[in-house]
Design brief:
With 70 residues, the protein is an alpha+beta fold. It has two helices and three strands. The chain has helices spanning 27-43, 65-69; strands at residues 3-8, 48-53, 56-63. Residues 1-29 are annotated as: Disordered.
């Protein structure tokens, strides 16, 4: 199984991230990575992310700007 992130603008259109991700072996690895890089992604124009497992949506879209406000 491969866990990946889809990077989106606020309107849901896909965009290239400022930080290039990898495929992650576990959901926890993917979530740890987003926790470490969300600021850089937001600064690079990514406004929300969706977590995928083998191409199937697990959850999202999740706003990155909400993390900044909290």
């Amino acid at each position: 199984m491969a866990w990946t992130w889809r990077f989106e603008k606020a309107d849901g259109t896909e965009t290239e991230p400022a930080v290039q991700p990898e495929e992650f072996p576990t959901q926890g690895d993917a979530e740890s990575w987003i926790g470490e890089t969300w600021r850089e992604l937001l600064e690079g124009g990514v406004e929300q992310v969706t977590l995928l497992e083998d191409g199937t949506t697990v959850y999202g879209p999740m706003s990155l700007s909400a993390a900044e406000e909290g």
